[in-house]
Design goal:
- This protein is mainly α.
- It has one domain.
- The chain contains 11 helices and no strands.
- Helix 1 runs antiparallel to helix 2 and helix 4 packs across helix 7.
- Bound molecules: fe (ii) ion (2 copies).
- One fe (ii) ion binds next to helix 2 and helix 5.
- GO terms for molecular function: hydrolase activity.
- It holds the Pfam family Metal_hydrol.
- Keywords: Hydrolase, Membrane, Transmembrane, Transmembrane helix.
Length: 293
């Protein structure tokens, strides 16, 4: 059952460009992903919420509530994360606007069923990437523990709720070929759009941070991180293909043993002052809003 955990992550903006142990090129891969989250997760919440009243199973209703609570917390913390990127001089605000515009276009033009299918496909993406991070701690190794803790917390909760939007999809759509084809087509469309945007944002962040140097080594490290034997793409390839099986369900790949770490991660975040303690960025935001009030 997804549980809403109200955690806060005081991220130091001076390490926003090189918090990952593998250096700035890999750091900016994660930073690019973070730019998608605030608008993306609001889209997930809205697309699931639209169908909430049609769900009859009380257990699934509770799971939807947990899903919405978790995604709302992720949205809040990635807004703060992206503020940290802005404070570091990166073009985060500019890039985020593209995601907002794109998803607003989707909201206005795509049928609600397609919006839900896109959410199901993107939730499979977050589940695949989360499983990959939790499977090998070196993939999220950080010179600054609070950054790794944020990504680990997000990955754990994505795993915890990975089947919720899928179960809503199966509960509200009539079974049959059409349901399968919409889901499969959404995955193809999302795959093309997701990686195009991630690649574009990642490149923009690297260009903005180009003065740092070490480019040959950085590109080599990034290529190994993405395409190496234990890289992102080889690791998720099979899971991606499994989505196209007509009888697919997210828990076919049972990785709930990874969730055993969640209490220790929460305790570590709290020990780092992660709950209810305003970070430097949040304090700046609060001061700004008080000034404009
Ligand atoms: Fe999330
Ligand atoms: Fe999610």
């Amino acid at each position: 059952m997804p549980v809403r955990r109200d955690l806060r992550f005081p991220l130091p903006s001076e390490r926003a460009c090189d918090w990952h142990a593998l250096g700035p090129y890999v750091t900016h891969f994660f930073n690019a992903l973070s730019l998608l989250f605030p608008a993306g997760e609001r889209y997930f919440i809205d697309s699931v919420r639209y169908y909430r009243d049609r769900i009859e199973d009380p257990e699934l209703k509770k799971q939807v509530l947990g899903f919405i609570g978790q995604e709302a917390m992720h949205t809040r913390e990635h807004i703060e994360y992206n503020e940290t990127l802005k404070a570091a001089g990166l073009p985060a605000a500019h890039l985020e606007k593209y995601v907002v515009r794109l998803l607003d276009f989707g909201r206005r033009n795509a049928p609600h069923s397609v919006q839900l299918a896109q959410t199901v496909a993107l939730e499979h993406y977050t589940a695949m990437l989360a499983g990959m991070l939790l499977d090998d701690e070196t993939r999220i190794a950080s010179g600054v523990p609070i950054y790794a803790q944020l990504w680990t917390w997000h990955a754990l909760e994505e795993t915890e709720h990975k089947a919720v939007s899928f179960d809503v999809w199966n509960a509200v759509m009539r079974p049959g070929l059409k349901r399968y084809l919409i889901r499969a087509a959404a995955m193809l469309q999302i795959t093309l759009m997701f990686w195009t945007i991630v690649f574009w944002f990642h490149t923009r962040l690297l260009i903005a941070d180009r003065h740092r140097g070490g480019h040959v080594r950085g590109i080599w490290t990034l290529m190994r991180f993405l395409f190496g034997r234990r890289g992102v793409f080889p690791t998720i390839a099979l899971d991606w293909l499994r989505f196209f099986k007509p009888s697919f369900h997210p828990w076919d790949h049972d990785n709930r043993s990874q969730l055993a770490r969640i209490d220790s991660v929460v305790a570590a975040v709290e020990a780092a002052g992660g709950r209810d303690k305003p970070s430097a960025v949040r304090a700046r935001m609060m001061a700004r809003s008080q000034k404009s009030a």
